[in-house]
Write a structure and sequence with these properties.
119 residues; mainly alpha; 5 helices; elongated
């Protein structure tokens, strides 16, 4: 469903870099994660944990790519860091990754790569 579509889009972002569609993909993902994590039912928690397991690797890769991109722009002295789209993309990527790390796992450190993510 939607989760597999988002995984495919995130993997595509990692390969293509940040295009015009990147902000749209990240905005949809951010809204889905916010909505899912606002639910208090136990079944919703389980769904959040399933989403977390599915999305953490591709979202983490895009998040790291964003950091590298921003460092590169900063190193060039580029004014693109002030670009509204890049700022919004960064803000929503940070928020999505935070939601995923905080609420997307019953216990993140039990995940194989979990300890590396929280160091």
């Amino acid at each position: 469903g939607l989760a597999h579509f988002m995984v495919a889009e995130l993997k595509d972002l990692r390969q293509r870099g940040f295009s015009e569609t990147a902000l749209s993909v990240v905005l949809v993902l951010h809204q889905v994660l916010k909505e899912q994590n606002s639910k208090r039912l136990l079944s919703a928690r389980r769904e959040s944990h399933q989403l977390g397991a599915l999305l953490v690797e591709p979202l983490g890769g895009v998040w790291v790519l964003k950091l590298e991109h921003m460092k590169q722009l900063q190193g060039q002295g580029s004014q693109n860091l002030a670009d509204d789209r890049l700022w919004r993309l960064s803000r929503h990527l940070d928020g999505s990754f935070l939601l995923l790390l905080v609420q997307g796992f019953a216990n993140l450190k039990e995940k194989e790569t979990g300890k590396q993510m929280i160091q």
